[in-house]
Design goal:
289 residues, globular
Length: 289
């Protein structure tokens, strides 16, 4: 499949996802293939039925193969380079509000979620694959009901799903990943970027949250990820800016700069051009033409 920009269910069904909280796509045959990285506000669980995907998750190369399951955390950086012609997958999409409510009701379901920040993919054997596929098919049926117990039923099914994934990881020789202090710091740093990128784009702002000097903080992040703290911050801001410019043509550049927390449009335009080599207006014209 060649790279081409097209509208994906993430965009066309955004209202449905927000309304229902959890939506299951059972016969997905395409990916949101842009010529650049992007992020989604949703947590996504994908089971590859057939075909392969070459991608990057948080700037780390990954290769999803048939019978792989992947958990992609919301607002993390994804870049789908290419997928095979026979690609087919089941995809579960959860809104942040729905996931927060599930965390409140079923805290044990998310106790091991850090596994999927540092390693998204889980390879499955034939038996494991069939079991997970059947479970996701059932989850689709439950998610489409209007029962007043819908949330509880979905929560219990997701508990089973994550418990099985933990079991399958162990069966397949994948050790439980207990994050190091540095990995824990990075996970908290990345969440801080998600929460505060409209307030500040400076390293010292984030370093102070963890009572570290900017120099030491930057050194730790660079040593762990091979990417500087400033690059992580800038990447997130630029991805949000590009999504707004590309998908929300009703917003002016001035409105977008305000939405992202820049004091005025000229500062936003300089920041964007320094990172991308083009102005926000040039980027929008290129992707709307």
């Amino acid at each position: 499949m060649t790279k081409e920009q097209h509208i994906h269910p993430f965009m066309t069904d955004s209202s449905l996802i927000e309304e229902r909280g959890l939506v299951v796509y059972e016969d997905l045959r395409e990916l949101p293939v842009y010529e650049e990285a992007f992020s989604t506000p949703y947590t996504v669980i994908v089971l590859n039925l057939s075909g392969w995907v070459k991608a990057e998750c948080d700037m780390r190369p990954v290769f999803f193969q048939p019978h792989n399951l992947a958990v992609l955390m919301h607002h993390h950086i994804h870049y789908f380079h290419e997928c095979s012609e026979d690609y087919q997958a089941i995809m579960v999409v959860m809104s942040p509000e729905f996931q927060n409510e599930l965390k409140r009701r079923f805290p044990s379901t998310y106790r091991e979620v850090h596994h999927y920040i540092f390693k998204q993919e889980v390879p499955l054997n034939e038996h494991q694959f069939t079991t997970i596929k059947n479970l996701l098919t059932l989850l689709k049926s439950v998610s489409e009901t209007n029962s007043h117990k819908r949330m509880d039923m979905i929560g219990h099914q997701l508990e089973v799903l994550f418990d099985l994934l933990q079991q399958y990881r162990r069966e397949n020789g994948i050790e439980d990943h207990q994050p190091s202090q540095r990995e824990d710091l990075f996970a908290r740093f990345y969440q801080a970027i998600i929460d505060h990128h409209t307030e500040s784009r400076e390293v010292h702002f984030y370093a102070s949250m963890f009572n570290l000097t900017p120099k030491h903080f930057s050194t730790v992040i660079k040593q762990l990820t091979n990417i500087s703290a400033l690059e992580w911050i800038t990447s997130h801001v630029i991805i949000q800016a590009k999504a707004l410019l590309r998908n929300h043509d009703h917003l002016t550049v001035q409105q977008i700069s305000h939405k992202l927390g820049f004091p005025d449009q000229s500062i936003f335009s300089r920041y964007f051009k320094n990172a991308t080599g083009m102005s926000p207006k040039e980027y929008r014209e290129q992707h709307l033409s």
